[in-house]
Structure formats: structure tokens, C-alpha cells
Design brief:
Layout lengths: L2 E3 L3 H17 L8 H7 L1 H11 L4 H10 L4 H12 L17 E6 L66 H7 L6 H5 L27 H9 L3 H12 L8 E15 L6 E18 L7 E10 L3 H14 L11 H8 L1 H9 L6 H18 L11 H6 L18 E3 L5
Antiparallel strand pairs: 1-6, 2-3, 3-4, 4-5
Length: about 425
């Protein structure tokens, strides 16, 4: 599909872009800084990082600012930038047990080993507008609710907190695995831990190779991790609302930082270079009749930044796509992966705004021809044609018409769809 603007096209497009930028700066308030977006709207930048497949909080904040808060557009900008980067090295695999959790809840166990860590959340409070937030700062973010310049009060200052380094918490799923209650999907594929081979197979990289169907579980998890949050949530919700067989119990949801390690080029040892904040979720699904040994099937989800809703929905879709059923949308891996990617859906929906002159004229001519055949006595010119009204009954320009056009005219280099 190719469109060629023949009159004033590039100039008009530049003007539209200038208007878009002006719209961002309109108003009397101070311009938002990238630091403010990164620090105060981290949920927004986390979503952009997750869907863009690039962990870079500052770049995500910049993309959100440039896209005026449109997370899909911001993710598009991050993916485009990511495609220009040179790939130097791959990080070392990391065990999720190394996660330094700032939040960890287990709906499955009340007295979970390591304890419940609520962390920063409003999950258990009423959703009421806080009008104190209106005007809490004077633009530099230094004032607190009372208008003082000392900054916000630290709520932990009066807490009786233990000293020392934080302890690691035991993964809830490991408790069930130790009792043999969780089905190992790798056992069906002949993984190393199941005795079917010496090494794990190298996972696919869906950012460099196209997904083939039926996809492997590694491909499913990668595509879900980069999927659009709303689409992943909607399909996961559909499975729970009767259009699927999965209604899981969450083993745990964790938010925290994982170490990022690379192999040192000289020593050959793994070196920790930074940390990445992630959200991890694991869920179990009881399977009674489909196997001789009743066990839990399970789903897994992991997302950049703090995005618990998406991580939980990922676990539902991961568990759903492992089932053999193909009658429900959420259980069909091809349907799921073809519809959760924000870039694909965003591009295909919004391409309808582009010129479709040839397609529309073809449909219009076809409808008129059908109407004329059904009623030969009718006047084919009775239907209003704005081009015919402006240029004459035969659609040709009048002699007095100025051939110069102030608006862009587009022609197609092929099928305009």
C-alpha cells in the first residue's frame, strides 16, 4: 500500500504535527518534566515499557510525554527506538527466587512462609477521590499536603521495623511442587528436570523470529509479556466469565527488583550491572479428570514495572493456552497471540483513517450498478455525488475550475487496503 501526496501534502503533514505539539504545550501550567513522569506516574511508564519490550524507565517517560499519555503510541515509540539499538550481549538467566520483593501477597495461603507483604497499595481501601491532591505542590513537587516546603512525610518513620538485611521469601509454588501437586509441562516436552534430556532447549526470541503456530510456551509467554494490557486483561477476563475453563487461584503476586547480570568480557564471570523492577504472578488450576494423577495445572506471568493486572491476566491465558480445547477464544493460542499485540491492533484499526478513495469509489460504483440493474428506469444520477455536483454530471472538471488544489490529494500505488 502506498500513498503519494501530489499537492501540498508534506507541508500539510508538517503543519498537523506542529499543531499536535502545540496542543501538548497549551495551557498555563508548568511543562511536565521527564523526571516527574518517571517518578510520579510510574504505572504509566511501566505499561509503556512492558508493551514496548524495553526496560528503560526514563526513555519510557520520554515516550509517554511525547505521545501525550497514549500508552500504545508510547510503546510504539519504544519499539521503534529499540529496533535501532545494537545488540551487544544477552543477560544471564535469573532465578525469580532472587527477587527483592517490595510487595508479595498470597491469596492461596493465609500463613505463607515469609509472611504477607502488602507493600504500597490501595487494594484494600475505598476508591474515593482525594481532593487534597488538587494543588498539593507548586510545580516543583516539594510541598506536602499542608503546603509546607519540607516535602512529604515518611510514613515509616514511626514504624517499629526490624534491623538488618531483608530476608528472601519462599516461593509458594515450590511448596506445592515439593508435594508433587503441580504438573510439570516440561515433562511432556522431555526437559532436563523430567529426565527427558540433558539440557533445556534454547528459547525462541519472538523479537527476531516470527511466531509459528502452534507456538511453544516460551513464544506464548514472550508475546503475552509484550501484549497490550487491555487486550490481555479482556481475554483473561473472558476465560473466567464462561468463555473458557480456567478460573485460577493465585498462588502469589510479587513486585520487586531482579538483578540483571552479564558475562564479564575479560573474567568470564557473571557481573551484576543493574536491577529491573518486575511484577510476577503464578496461579494454579485444579485438574481432576484429565489426568490419571490429579494435580494442579499452573499459569505464569511476568511484566516489566508494576503492572499486577496484566501479570495476573497473563497467568490465566498461559494456563488456558496449555489446555487441549479449541472451542473458546482464550484457549486458542493463535487467536490470543494474533489479538493481544497492541502494535498490530493499533495499526490496523487506525489505518482506517488513511485515504481509501479507490476502495470507496469501487464500492459506490458497484452499489449504483446493482441499483440500476434492479430498476432500469431509475435515473442513475439521482443519487447525490459530491464530485458530480461540483464538477459536472460526468464527473469531469468544468472549464472554469482551477486545477490547483489547496488540500492534499492522494493516489495509490496499488490496492489501497
Amino acid at each position: 500500500m502506498g500513498y503519494v501526496a501530489v499537492t501540498a501534502g508534506e507541508e500539510i503533514i508538517d503543519r498537523a504535527e506542529d499543531l499536535f505539539e502545540k496542543q501538548r504545550l497549551d495551557g498555563d501550567s508548568e511543562t511536565l518534566s521527564v523526571e516527574q513522569l518517571d517518578e510520579q506516574l510510574s504505572r504509566l511508564t511501566a505499561q509503556a515499557m512492558s508493551e514496548g519490550g524495553l526496560y528503560a524507565p526514563r526513555l519510557a517517560a520520554l515516550a509517554v510525554k511525547q505521545a501525550q499519555g497514549d500508552t500504545v503510541e508510547a510503546a510504539f515509540l519504544l519499539r521503534a527506538y529499540r529496533s535501532t539499538l545494537e545488540r551487544w550481549e544477552e543477560t544471564e538467566p535469573v532465578d525469580p527466587d532472587e527477587l527483592l520483593a517490595t510487595r508479595r501477597v498470597s491469596p492461596a495461603y493465609k500463613d505463607v512462609p515469609g509472611g504477607q507483604i502488602l507493600g504500597p497499595t490501595k487494594d484494600y481501601t475505598q476508591r474515593l477521590l482525594d481532593f487534597d491532591l488538587d494543588g498539593e505542590a507548586d510545580g516543583d513537587g516539594s510541598a506536602d499536603r499542608d503546603g509546607s516546603a519540607e516535602g512529604p512525610e515518611d510514613p515509616t518513620s514511626d514504624w517499629d521495623l526490624p534491623d538488618g538485611e531483608p530476608t528472601t521469601v519462599q516461593n509458594v509454588m515450590e511448596i506445592l511442587r515439593e508435594d508433587g501437586l503441580v504438573h510439570d509441562p516440561e515433562a511432556d516436552a522431555g526437559g532436563a528436570d523430567s529426565g527427558g534430556g540433558d539440557e533445556w532447549s534454547e528459547p525462541a526470541d519472538t523479537t527476531r523470529e516470527s511466531v509459528t503456530h502452534p507456538p511453544g510456551r516460551d513464544e506464548v509467554l514472550q508475546e503475552l509479556a509484550r501484549g497490550e494490557t487491555g487486550a490481555v486483561t479482556a481475554l483473561g477476563y473472558s476465560a473466567m466469565r464462561g468463555y473458557g475453563q480456567v478460573h485460577p487461584t493465585l498462588a502469589e503476586v510479587r513486585v520487586g527488583k531482579l538483578p540483571v547480570r552479564i558475562t564479564h568480557p575479560y573474567t568470564g564471570e557473571a557481573v551484576r550491572v543493574t536491577d529491573a523492577e518486575v511484577t510476577e504472578s503464578e496461579a494454579v488450576v485444579p485438574v481432576y479428570e484429565k489426568r490419571d494423577d490429579p494435580q494442579f495445572a499452573f499459569g505464569y506471568g511476568l511484566s516489566f514495572g508494576r503492572n499486577e493486572r496484566k501479570a495476573i491476566a497473563m497467568t490465566i491465558l498461559d494456563a488456558s493456552t496449555q489446555l487441549d480445547g479449541a472451542d473458546e477464544p482464550a484457549e486458542n493460542p493463535e487467536f490470543v497471540l494474533d489479538n493481544v499485540d497492541g502494535m498490530d491492533s493499533f495499526g490496523f484499526i487506525e489505518h482506517l483513517k488513511l485515504p481509501h478513495y479507490v476502495t470507496f469509489q469501487s464500492i459506490l460504483d458497484r452499489i449504483r450498478a446493482i441499483r440500476e440493474r434492479r430498476d432500469p428506469d431509475s435515473d442513475p444520477d439521482a443519487d447525490s455525488d459530491p464530485d458530480a455536483d461540483a464538477d459536472g454530471a460526468d464527473g469531469a472538471p468544468d472549464e472554469d475550475d482551477d486545477p490547483e488544489v489547496d488540500e492534499p490529494v492522494a493516489t495509490t500505488g496499488g490496492d489501497d487496503d
